[in-house]
Amino acid sequence: MKAKDLRERTAEELAELEKTLTRERFQNRFKNFTNRLDNTAALKQARRDIARVKTVMTEKKSEAK
Q1: pTM over 0.70
Q2: Fewer CB atoms inside 10 A, N or C side of the chain?
């Protein structure tokens, strides 16, 4: 997921995406603990995607002021 694509989304879409990614990260962590996660790189990717979304949300808030 690219930050450029995230900047084109609205604040509501970003908030929903953050919830989805957080839920996905939790599920992947649980699968990893039970040794059912095949792609362990998904843990790192989800964490970074959440950080990108939060960064863009913060940028949008500062632009609105």
Answers
A1: yes
A2: C
Distance CA 2, CA 7 (A): 9
List the domain range (segments joined by +) for residue 55. Answer: 3-64
The values of phi and psi at residue 2, to 5°, are: -100, 145
**CATH number (domain holding residue 18):** 1.10.287.310
Q: How many other C-beta atoms lie within 10 A of the C-beta of residue 16?
A: 13
Q: pLDDT, tens digit, for every residue of 17-52?
A: 999 999 999 999 999 999 999 999 999 999 999 999
H-helix or E-strand spanning residue 13: helix 11-33
Domain total in the chain: 1
Q: Residue 43 contacts by C-beta under 8 Å, 6 or more apart in sequence?
A: 25, 28, 29, 32, 37
